[in-house]
Write a structure and sequence with these properties.
By secondary structure, the chain is of the alpha/beta class. It contains 13 helices and twelve strands. It starts with 7 loop residues before the first strand and ends in a 5-residue tail after the last helix.
Length: about 350
């Protein structure tokens, strides 16, 4: 903690618990010793190393796409991809709870942007019907929504995309490492990889590093390499970040027990919270929203929990509407059922004291 104290960490996105793994540290150190601390340039100039290209090959194979390209951050991926594919006269269709970087990318595009109500397929179809049939259309959704922990209804999205001749892009920042074969994400989880056009991921969650990537067909990835401004005009991923992400990818495949344990404790935590009277909405993931629906109470709860050695994070406006204010309780594969028991008991007492649950 910043003040030197210790606490149980339930505020991290390191779902597989790899950000502190000694093997990632060793890989990062070795990369720094070989390549230095920075490429000091963009991918188009001097910022492409053999390890960048190796990671991209591994990522494309991992998510079942032809090609992949890495960016310095996940935010830059969505900013650059969505803006580059937002063609003049075209349409971008967004779930209204998509991540901010998707929204910002759409604002930089030339396309008309339509938002539809979260996971509402009737609303999506209405927006698709409003689009001109012969113009390009791109549907962009989160695979796993980072605040409520629910999944996109990908089978229905793909059906509508095919019916209305639209492309589908998934932001799988919170799905990779958690869902699908070997943790390869939401499309794999639903068995729909061949019906998705683009898969985006970040390295700051399950990969325990920093950066991001987009994967798709060779033609589209080549287009993005030459048109995505946040890629072209940014310095490339540092050697340490590349090496750490690459090692994490290896461990995802080699150690499925990490993901299996994560799901074991996730199901355990769902039950513990529900049995104790918490409203955890419709989560389907290790992201567990503890609904508070009051900003002051949420901030009070976070402070009280911190003082009792439990680190959790509040989610307040503008991240969510006031009526949906929540505490975000996130699990890692390094947690145990004992850790969860301690946190649930302390949070139950705090939520009762603040009047959120009876």
């Amino acid at each position: 903690m910043t003040d030197g104290s210790q606490a149980l960490m339930f505020g991290s996105n390191s779902y597989l618990g790899l950000s502190d793994d000694p093997r990632l540290k060793e890989a990062a150190i070795a990369a720094v010793q070989k390549y230095g601390t920075s490429c000091s340039g963009s991918r188009f100039l001097n910022g492409t190393l053999d390890i960048h290209e190796e990671l991209e090959r591994k990522l494309a194979k991992f998510v079942g796409m032809d090609k992949a390209v890495t960016f310095s951050t996940g935010f830059q991926v969505n900013l650059g991809v969505v803006s580059a594919l937002g063609f003049r006269g075209g349409y971008i269709l967004l779930d209204d709870t998509d991540h901010a970087c998707i929204i910002d990318g759409s604002r930089l595009s030339w396309s008309t942007v339509y938002k539809f109500k979260h996971n509402d397929m009737n609303a999506l179809e209405k927006k698709l019907k409003a689009c001109e049939a012969d113009k390009p259309k791109l549907i962009v959704v989160d695979g796993v929504y980072s605040m409520l922990g629910d999944l996109c209804p990908l089978p229905q999205i793909c059906d509508l995309a095919e019916q209305y001749n639209a492309a589908v892009m998934i932001d799988d920042a919170h799905g990779l490492g958690v869902f699908g074969e070997n943790g390869s994400g939401t499309a794999s989880h639903f068995g729909l990889t061949d019906r998705v056009d683009l898969i985006m991921g970040t390295f700051s969650k399950s990969f325990g590093s920093l950066g991001g990537f987009i994967a798709g067909s060779e033609k589209v990835i080549n287009f993005l390499k030459h048109n995505s401004r946040s890629l072209i005009f940014s310095a490339s991923m540092t050697p340490a970040a590349v090496a750490a992400a690459s090692k994490a990818l290896d461990l995802m495949i080699e150690e499925p027990q990490r993901r299996e344990h994560l799901w074991d404790i996730t199901r355990y935590a769902w039950k513990r919270f529900r049995d104790n009277g918490f409203d955890i909405n419709a989560t389907e993931s290790p992201i567990i929203p503890l609904m508070v629906r009051d900003t002051i109470k949420a901030l009070t709860i976070v402070r009280m929990a911190y003082d009792q050695g439990v680190f959790i994070t509040p989610v307040i406006s503008p991240a969510v509407p006031e009526k949906d204010v929540l505490i975000r309780f996130a699990l890692m594969a390094t947690h145990t059922k004992e850790h969860i028991d301690i946190a649930v008991e302390k949070l139950t007492a705090i939520f009762k004291e603040t009047g959120v649950i009876q």
